[in-house]
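Take just one protein record:
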Amino acid sequence: MFRKSHIVKINLPGGIIAAGDLYTIVEAAGRAKVTDMQFGARQQLFCKVADSYGDVFFRELEQAGIFFETGKEVYPNIVSSYVTESVFGKSPWVSEGLYKDILAGFDFRPRLKINLVESSQSLIPFFTGHINFISSAINNHWHLYVRQPGTNELFAWKAGVYSPDIPRVSRWIEEDPHWSEKLYPEPSLAPLGLPPYSVPYYEGFNRYGNKSWLGIYRREELFPLSFLKAVCLACLQTKIGQIYTTPWKSLLIKGIEDQDLPLWESILGTHRMNIRHASNELNWQMEDFCPEGLRLKRYLVRLLDQDDIRTEGLTFCIKTQRGSGLSGSIIIRKQEGIRPGQLKLLDRYELWHTAGFNPHSKEYILFRKDLEKENIYPYLVSLCKEFYRLQGEKEPPLAVITPGPPPSGPIFRCGHCLTLYDEQYGDPEGGVPPGTAFEHTPPDYSCPLCGEARSGFYQAEKTPAIH
């Protein structure tokens, strides 16, 4: 007998949720006989609940003050790069506290998709929202890019938006066609410079500062309820307050102390969680609850892996529906009929790529159409090769490096991986300008290679090898 079920969506504004709140949701879902939950492309939480348990589950969520939707989505989740803070992002002024203040300022539920993204990171897509705020070089001011629903045209506002004004400006854009007349024209911002795009490896245990973060990806997108419950309890036990989600439908836990690593290893082992997936499987996006997209992804990833095809620097997405809002360098789109009343061309696909293979671009170029599933792969490989050909053309010629004078100041060496710190060069990527003495580096400075804390460095003798 067919049993009706509800797809329940719970927004996690900014892609964050308190461990205690997630535990409340998981417990209620367990009583509704839910076995798995999954995260969405806009950092939200989904689960399927049988009709016979729906009313009880909905009542428990309402009593806990947790907003949810079933059926058609009316209120999209607010996407943010909060998850990247201190892990992937390097902004001098965007902080976790600022994200919290901005998200707390939303006293309404937006009907348009809003993205709040820090400009130096590349884990969170930039322009998948209708209202896109991207951090600028000026403290507390954001670039604003508006995209009307159903279009790919971006309108760039000419000035910066002040951080506390973001909720109010979002409401104006949503409710008032003349919203631009309400905005202050200053300060003007330098043109937005986007970083080279490459999805960082967001899985497994990784060091940052003197702690670790853990990224968990699931091939089928399903997280067992028993595992999520164990994660919540471990967070509460080890005083980790928040859990993060990503648009790649993965889970990330930050702030893991060294003494707690065995606990997390035990949880992963008990629930048989694999955290060793190949990077060419981690850079795909698909619509939520899309078995067809998952099957096609598995098929293509298996062939890419079998032929050892490099995909670093590319992102892929599979679209089977219109208006999904997904982004990628290479897009595989299910083909539809082209005449009114014509049936869809089943199992036929189009292959597109963005201009210059830039996933931030909204300029799409058709590469092939009318492809059966079995014919997608050869053309996909051709696009990968074309991407690396273009990358090779951008590479500058090798420079001849001549030895400079020996460093004038002391040299410090990381005690873990032996990386050197020379005040002559500093560590610009780590926010330390050239000429900065080691003792004047920030207290939270860490080794750019292995993440060892500043206290783990020692002064090295100036030998010819070091010079």
User: Anything to note?
Assistant: The first strand starts at residue 5 and ends at 10. The chain has a mean pLDDT of 88.
